[in-house]
What we know:
- This protein is mostly helical.
- It has a domain at 17-94 and 111-281.
- The chain contains ten helices and no strands.
- The protein has helices at 16-41, 68-90, 115-147, 154-158, 181-186, 194-213, 223-245, 251-272, 317-321, 420-423.
- The termini are far apart.
Amino acid sequence: MEIPAKLPFSKRRLRPRIVISYIFDYVIIIACAIAFSILNTIEPFHQHFSLNNISIQYPYAVHERIPMAYALCISAAFPLALIILYTLFIDGLFSHHKPQIAASGKRKLTGPYRWKDRLWELNCGILGLLLAQGLAFVITQALKTACGKPRPDLIDRCQPRAGSKDLFPGLSNSTICTGDPKILTDGFRSWPSGHSSSSFAGLVYTSLWLGGKLHVMDNRGEAWKALLVMVPLLAASLVAVSRIMDARHHPFDVITGSMLGVVCGFVAYRQYFPPLTEPWRKGRAYPIRTWGTEPVGPDSVRFIDSRGDSSTALRNHEEERMGPPDIPSSEHIRSDVSTYRQPSNPYTSNMYNRRPHDHDADGGAWSSSEDDVTNGYEMRHGHTMGQNPGAGHHAPQYDPSNAYVSQTQPLTADPGIYAPEAMAGPGRPLTDIPGRTL
């Protein structure tokens, strides 16, 4: 089979390994489904048990409150429908600055995002959801099979032969059971809870995804956003609690299964989407992945002081002017620095280079799937801006005078850091150095 030269969401020609990497994502999800099916057919380990243990003497509930099919509808089908509906029809509908239609001059009702932008977001959203569920199912089933912990209703499933007693000293095992073998086998799959892990995996992912789209951590304190984000978590908790009510799992099984689901949901979300603590990214999916570039660290995003923007961090400028007590005031870093620029990063969309909560000031027409996502520059070692192989032109040299410097630490003589004091010489005061404010 010939590998396509580009993804359907981009006009750029991509290397085969990039296309293969996204195909491989779906292959991993399919492999998880196959692995779960295989693990489900393996006989689990049967732990010994005591007929006198009251914690496994609950009655067997023939009808569960939330069968697995219903749990999958809650944790997978509903989030999938939400992602499709929001991404294709709602995303950008309430944008503050919608682009105008050239012909009529009216603003676009659907917002700034193009059809291919929505398809890329849909692709990443579905990939993350399936990955969360796939990881939860495989890990849970592997642990169930290996541990073989008895369920709370094991004695009722076992139907011990008349006169059966625990060995002395010792415990009973499954050889004394006369119940349905299929039901009995499932009775040794108590830890961890599959309902809990799958529900929390899918719904924690949904909660994070929804929180990113609603900019829930934008420092504006809109309680309705927090309420909407918490609804999926409440649904997952109710599904998990129902397993204790049906005596299918011990509380420990439910708690650990829920924790496993939370981890799977979080990991899957962060593979394709930025953290909620960066609300200016508006929960948009990461751009098409690349290799050969350094990971973007937490210090790569600089605040651009918007003077009054509610997303600007609370700062005490008087304290920031204060240096260490043993440093003269003339050696303090200039106190009027209010702009921190984000160094350009290749293969990132314009949205990642915009200031926090610049609410569609440029029309909001950006996307992770932009054709020109390679128009940035790559940060190289030594604080220089290298040539971007996808841009087709050379970048200007990095100006060290614009480098980010701490507002509370003294300048050093490191050649890679702009130090005005190092430039001062005999007869040349600091005030004569460009960009230096005392």
